[in-house]
UniProtKB/TrEMBL annotation:
GO terms for biological process: base-excision repair. It catalyses: Hydrolysis of DNA containing ring-opened 7-methylguanine residues, releasing 2,6-diamino-4-hydroxy-5-(N-methyl)formamidopyrimidine. Belongs to the FPG family. Keywords: DNA damage, DNA repair, DNA-binding, Glycosidase, Hydrolase, Lyase, Metal-binding, Multifunctional enzyme, Zinc, Zinc-finger. Its cofactor is Zn(2+). PANTHER family: FORMAMIDOPYRIMIDINE-DNA GLYCOSYLASE. It comes from the Bacteria. SMART domains: Fapy_DNA_glyco, H2TH. Residues 2-93 form the Formamidopyrimidine-DNA glycosylase catalytic domain. This is Formamidopyrimidine-DNA glycosylase.
């Protein structure tokens, strides 16, 4: 799933490549992906693509007085085209393509989603706050002070892994980078947020800023097609089950859940004790 660094990089790429061009055609192939019905998609034709930014993990593309706000979900992506092979309009259900935006210079982009579980969501709105997910977002993970971070973490009781990825607590952190942040902070993913000391929270805050800023720095400037590989290359524990921890050499382990998993290093994070790999794992303190 694209997280804060990748969405920031996509926004930066659109600012470099697409901002300043006029929308020639906006097409919707997967009507389940477009979650709004007013205004109609045709309203964007002839309008200037004037901005690209983000709200947490939501991509926000400003066109005229409207915003195309996109949540790429687990399997969604943005594919930029310098030119399209065919000028013909998209047909409904055109494979993985959900939305296509063509620009006046012949370039543009597709929003695509792989797999059968369709979760990509696009909203055409007049104000981003009209998008329910945006309206519920907490402060951006890279915009909070240590004091605000401490308050936000302690306001939500639970295992720290779940608190970090709760978008109403902090916006932008997902499954992958939360694994990386916890590894850098040397904290168990099952540590309870309410029992963290001031020192542990300060270390966690520093780790969050370092991990996210480093990922943004590596990602911004990359072409959209290269971002997934850049993300994987920068991971130290996430998606590295069975490989040696780059910090201590211990084997990276995994805890699997129904629809996701987390990775961690026992030596660095749990006092050398492996976590039980089942949904109701006992907390390692």
């Amino acid at each position: 799933m694209p997280e804060l660094p990748e969405v920031e990089a996509l926004a930066a790429y659109l600012r470099e490549r697409a901002v300043g061009h006029t929308v020639e055609r906006f097409e919707v192939s997967s009507f389940s992906a477009l979650k709004t019905y007013d205004p109609q998609p045709s309203v964007l034709t002839g309008l200037l693509l004037g901005s690209a930014g983000r709200h947490g993990k939501f991509l926000d593309i400003g066109v005229g007085d409207f915003h195309l706000v996109v949540h790429l979900a687990r399997a969604g992506w943005l594919h930029y085209r310098d030119s399209f092979k065919s000028p013909a309009p998209l047909k409904p259900g055109s494979g993985p393509i959900a939305v296509r935006m063509r620009l006046d210079d012949g370039s543009g982009f597709d929003l695509t989603e792989a797999g059968t579980q369709k979760s990509l969501a696009a909203y055409l709105v007049r104000d981003p706050s009209e998008v329910p997910g945006v309206a519920r977002l907490g402060p951006d993970a890279l915009a909070v002070s240590l004091d605000e971070f401490t308050e936000r973490i302690r306001s939500k009781k639970g295992q720290i892994k779940g608190v970090l990825v709760d978008q109403e607590v902090l916006a932008g952190i997902g499954n992958a980078y939360s694994d990386e942040i916890l590894h850098a902070a040397r904290l168990s993913p099952f540590a309870l947020s309410g029992k963290l000391t001031d020192e542990q929270i300060a270390v966690l805050y520093t780790a969050m800023r370092e991990i996210e800023n480093d990922a943004v720095g590596r990602s911004v400037g990359q072409r959209a097609a290269e971002l997934k590989g850049e993300k994987r290359a920068g991971m130290r524990v996430h998606a590295r089950t069975g490989l040696p921890c780059p910090a201590c050499g211990d084997t990276v382990r995994e805890v699997s859940f129904a629809d996701k998993s987390l990775q961690y290093c026992p030596t660095c994070q749990t006092g050398g004790k492996p976590l039980a790999d089942r949904r109701l794992s006992k907390l390692v303190r």
